[in-house]
Amino acid sequence: EKTLKYFLVSFGILETAPAPVHSYTPANVEPASRPPWVTDDSFSQKFAPGKTTTTVTKHILPRGAPVPSPASTSAYPSPVSTSSQAPAIARGTVQRAERFPASSRTPLCGHCNSIIRGPFLVAMGRSWHPEEFNCAYCKTSLADMCFVEEQNSVYCERCYEQFFAPTCARCHTKIMGEVMHALRQTWHTSCFVCAACKMPFGNSLFHMEDGEPYCEKDYIALFSTKCHGCDFPVEAGDKFIEALGHTWHDTCFICAVCHVNLEGQPFYSKKDKPLCKKHAHAINV
Fold first, then answer.
1. Which residue stretches does the UniProt record annotate as biased composition, category Low complexity (predicted)?
2. What distance in Å separates the CA atoms of residue 152 and residue 234, rounded to the nearest whole number?
3. Are residues 195 and 212 in contact, defined by beta-carbon separation less than 8 angstroms?
């Protein structure tokens, strides 16, 4: 073993370490790594079963928004189970809370988690005290106003538009509601349209030409090469033939009389139509 260790050290494979120095910890000094329930006599009291704890959820405020003071910090806790959540909606969708009168029903408030005794609001699948359902930024009451949910908080339309709503690449106004993402930009769905027919694309495919988007129909009509034989476009990957000043699918370049394929064969032409040698002098073409 000593010989092997010497061999490894000689070739730089193993580094030797100095012999350990034995030491002891005085009885009145507690190591820093010891758990808190050993070093803190009041730990068990802090987390006794009868104690209650408060959890504060950190929210990302809009850019430019002042940081609230600790005393005024509030949070909208997430629902306990996913079954109580409202159906997923598109980002930026404008919503409105629904009012309910006082009744025997006593739901928990989604803001303060207290029982609501009296009229309440229902929004995002949760119930709220009317006076506690406010814009997370300007604190405006949203009891009778439209709101938008963003980053687990709610905002009035004005604050959402100012801080979160993307800008349309065409009309340069803020986008509220459904957003179209295309060409590394954001658009109103009604603003991202074909450069020729001006119809919105929706979820349809589009083609780019000279930096402009075109629907498939207009792109084919304006830019594609059409087969002179069948008048359908010659698409990428198709085999084609250039003859008589036109482009043909390889299967469309045939004799106008007997329809024999003329690819790689000598041919004649009459009235701009290809003919095989047998029908080179055909009258009815």
1. 70-84
2. 52
3. yes
Q: Let me know the angle formed at the C-alpha of 170 by 157 and 65, rounded to the nearest 5 degrees.
A: 35
Domain count, the chain: 3
Q: Are residues 219 and 172 in the same domain?
A: yes
C-beta of residue 235 within 8 angstroms of C-beta of residue 248: no
Q: Cα(150)–Cα(132) distance, rounded to whole angstroms?
A: 17
Look-up: residue for tokens 């979820």? 203
| One domain for residues 173 and 154 | no
Residues 205, 244 within the same domain:
no
In a domain, 43, yes or no: no
pLDDT of residue 269: 84
Domain encompassing residue 188? 166-223
Note the pLDDT tens digit of each residue in 101-117.
988 888 999 999 999 98
> Which pLDDT score, from 0 to 100, does residue 143 have?
92
Residues 197, 144 share a domain: no
- pLDDT tens, residue by residue, 67-80: 433 333 334 433 33
The whole model's pTM is what?
0.47
The pLDDT tens digits for 27-64 are 444 444 455 445 555 545 544 444 433 333 333 444 55
Domain presence at residue 2: no
In a domain, 211, yes or no: yes
Same domain, 157 and 107: yes
Q: What share of the chain is helix, strand, coil (3-state, %, to 5)?
A: 15, 25, 65
Q: Residue 117 belongs to a domain with what CATH number?
A: 2.10.110.10
Q: Buried (b) or exposed (e) across 156-173, using 16+ Cβ within 10 A? A: bbebbbbebbbebbeeee
As a whole number, mean pLDDT of residues 204-226 equals: 88
Cβ–Cβ under 8 Å, residues 273 and 229: no
Residue tagged 């009145």 (tokens)? 28
